[in-house]
Amino acid sequence: MKPSDSSPIKPESGSNYKHKPVGNLVRPTLWQQLAGLIRPYVPRVILATLFSIIVSGLNGAIAWLVKPAMDKIFVEGNYKYIYLLPLGIIILYILRGACSFLQSYLMRTAGMKLVRDLRNRFFSHLIRLPVSVISRSSSGDMLSRLMNDVGAMGNFLSESLRTFLLQIPSVIVLMGVALYQRWDLALLSFILLPFIALGTRFLSKLARIRRKKVQRYLAILTHRVSEALQGLRVVKIFGMEKVKDSQFVKENQTTYRQMSKAIRLREGTKFLIEVLSGLAVAAILGYGGSLVASGEMTSGAFFSIITAIVMAFTPFKKLGGAYTQFQETLGIFERVNHFLDQKQEESQGQALDGLRKEIRYENVSFSYPGTDSQVLQAIDIIIPAGKIFAIVGPSGAGKSTLVDLIPRFYNPTSGRILWDGIDLRKISLADLRHQMAIVTQDVVLFSDTIYENIAAGRPDGATMEDVEKAAKVAQAHDFIAALPQGYDSVLDERGLNLSGGQRQRIALARAVLRNPPLLILDEATSALDSVSEKAIQEALDKVMKGRTTIVIAHRLSTIIHADQVVVIDQGRIVDRGTHEELIESSVLYRELYQTWASSDQKIVKD
Predict the structure, then answer these.
(1) Exposed, middle or buried: residue 271 (CB in 10 Å: 0-12, 13-18, 19+)?
(2) Does the pLDDT value for residue 205 go beyond 80?
(3) Which of 4-8, 325-329, 373-377, 457-461 shows the highest mean pLDDT?
C-alpha cells in the first residue's frame, strides 16, 4: 500500500540537503546539521573515544601476546611462563571490560540526552507552528515523529557512532600488529576490502531509503490507533470494530513487509562481509600455512597474525552493520528535519492594548491551504467595540472559519482584517491573542487539576480566590466543590470524567478569568441543558456587558439580545440587522429562528 492523497499521512516531497540559498542565507548541508545536533555532547564523545583507544590498544596487546606465548612456551618449552600467561590475560580482559563499559555508558547516555533534547525541541517547535501547517498532518503523524523518529535518532550516538569509535581504532591496531609480523600476509587480507566497502555502501543507501518508508508507515499505524481511541464511542455504536480491525491489520502487514525489506538489507550487508571475510581468512591460512611448512615463518608469528586478522574482521563486520544503521538514521533525520524546517508563527509586530473602536473585515475571502474552494467570499463586516455581535447560519456556512481569522489561526486568502484600524498581520501575535478568550462547543481541557485548567486563563498567575470567583460566575463552583478533591481534582484525558455541561462551564470559567476585551463564544452553551444554560446565560449577560462579544450559536437564547446579527450562507453574508429586523426581512433567519424556537420549547418540555 502506498500513501495516497487520501491517506492520513502524506509523504513529504524529496529533500535536497546540499547547500542552497534561502534568501540571503545558505542552508547548511545534512552533515552540518547532524554535526550541530551532536555538538552539545562532544565532551562525552571525546571521553568515550579515549576509552575506545585504550580498548583498541588492549585488543592489539592480546593479539601480540600470542606470538611470545606460542614461541616461548609451546615451541621453546619454557613452561615457567605458563603460570604468568593466565594472569596477564585476566588483567588485560578486566581492563578491556572496564574501558568498554565506560565507553558504552558514555555513548548510550549521550544518545539518551540527544533524544531528550531533540524531543524538547520538537515539541517546542510543534506548539509554535501555525494551525494551517498542523492541520495538514494528523495527530498520529506528529506523535509518530515525536516518539518513533526522534527515539530512533538516539541510535546514532548510542549505536552507530559508538561502534565507529570503538571498532575503527581496533581494526587499525590489529591490522598494524598483523603488518608488523608479516606485511605480505597481512596485505593479502586487504585484497577484498574494496569489495566489502562498495557492497556495504550500495546496500546501506538502499536501507536508508527503505527506512524512511518504514517510518512513514509507522506514522500511519500511530494515526490509526489514535483515531480509533478518539472515536471509540462511534466505533462501538456503529459496530465498526471489524472494519477498523481489518484496516489496521492490513496496514500493519504492509508496515511489517517494509520493515522486513529493511532488515534484509541490513542483514544482507552482514552476509556480504561474512562471505568475503571467510574468503580472506581462507587465503591467509593457505598462504601462511605454506610459509610455516617451508620454515619461512614461525608458528607463533603465524598464529599471532591469524589472531589479529580474525579479531580485526569481527569489528569490521560490526562497522558494516553500523554503517547501514547510520544510513537508516540519516533517513529518519531527514524526516525530523523536514518537520523542524517548517516555519514557526512570526510573533513580532505592533503592540496592542485593548479594543477601543472596532474590528473590521474588508473584502475578506478565504480558502483552506491545498484547496481551491472558497470557504468565505468577499466578507465586509464591522464589529463595534463593546457590542454583542452574533453570527448565524446553517452548518458548514463558514461561521467558525470567520472567527478563526481573528486570532490568526489562518490568514485571509485575500482582503484584510483591521483591529482599531491596524491590519492583524502587523500586530504582535502574542499581544493579539492576549486580547481575547474563546469558548467553543468542542471543549479542550487538559489532564491536570481543575484549578490549573481554569488558571490557564491567566498564565501570569491566578490565586485560588481568582479561580473560585471565575468558577462562580460560570456556575461551576458548586459541582467542583462537591468533588472529593475539589479544585485539586485531576481530570482524565479531555476531561471525560466530567459531564459535557461541566466541561463547558470549566471552559467558561477559564474565559471569565482571562477577562479579555474580546470574548468569542462558538456555540459555547450548546452542550448544556436548558436549566444550566439559563443559569450560565445570566452569568454571561453580566460578563458580556460592555465587552466586545462575538457569538456563534444554534440556540436562540444566546443571540436574541445581540446588538447586531449577520446571517452567513455558503461563505457569504446574506443578511444583517437586529433580531427583530431579521425576523421581518430574512427568510433564512426566520427558518433558523423557527427551528431554534421549537428545539428550545422541546427541551423545556422534556
Answers:
(1) middle
(2) no
(3) 373-377
Rounded distance, CA 103 to CA 166, Å?
8
CATH code 1.10.357.10 for 358-605 = no
CA distance linking residue 250 with residue 39, whole number of Å: 42
Under DSSP, is residue 421 helix (H, G, I), strand (E, B) or coil?
coil
Rounded Cα distance, 128 and 69, in Å: 66
- Decide if 385 contacts 356 (C-beta within 8 A): yes
| Residue 392 DSSP code | E
CB 71 within 8 A of CB 298: yes
C-alpha distances (whole Å) from 43 to each of 50, 110, 154, 213, 326 are 11, 10, 17, 34, 21
Q: What is the pLDDT of residue 3?
A: 41
Q: Torsion over CA of 249, 251, 256 and 259, rounded to 10 degrees?
A: -160
SS3 state at 72: helix
Provide the Cα torsion 540, 541, 543, 548; round to 10°.
110
pLDDT at 18 over 50: no
C-alpha cell at 505: 462551564
| Confidence category of residue 139, pLDDT binned at 50, 70, 90 | low
Angle CA(499)–CA(503)–CA(508) in degrees, nearest 5?
145
CATH 1.20.1560.10 at 29-340, yes or no = yes
CA distance 245 to 270: 37
| 8 Å CB contact between 560 and 527 | no
The Cα–Cα gap between 424 and 356 comes to: 15
Q: Say yes or no to pLDDT of 297 above 60.
A: yes
Task: Give the domain ranges of the chain.
Answer: 29-340, 358-605
> Concatenated DSSP letters for 114-143?
HHHHHHHHHHHHHTTS-HHHHTTS-HHHHH
| Strand duo 25-26 + 358-366: pairing | unpaired
Residue 540: what residue type? Answer: L
Q: How far is it, in rounded angstroms, from Cα 163 to Cα 501?
A: 58
Q: Could you tell me the CA-to-CA distances from 601 to 530, 555, 559, 592, 595 in Å, in that order?
A: 10, 11, 16, 14, 10
Give me the sign of the Cα torsion angle 308, 314, 319, 324: positive
Whether residue 158 contacts residue 326, with contact meaning beta carbons closer than 8 Å, is answered with no
Write out the DSSP string of 244-298: HHHHHHHHHHHHHHHHHHHHHHHHHHHHHHHHHHHHHHHHHHHHHHHHHHTTSS-
Separation of alpha carbons 87 and 94, rounded Å: 11
362: cell is: 474588508
Highest mean pLDDT among 100-109, 126-135, 291-300, 594-603: 100-109
Q: What is the mean pLDDT of residues 140-161?
A: 75
Name residues whose C-beta falls within 8 Å of residue 226's C-beta, 6 or more positions apart in sequence: 138, 139, 140, 143
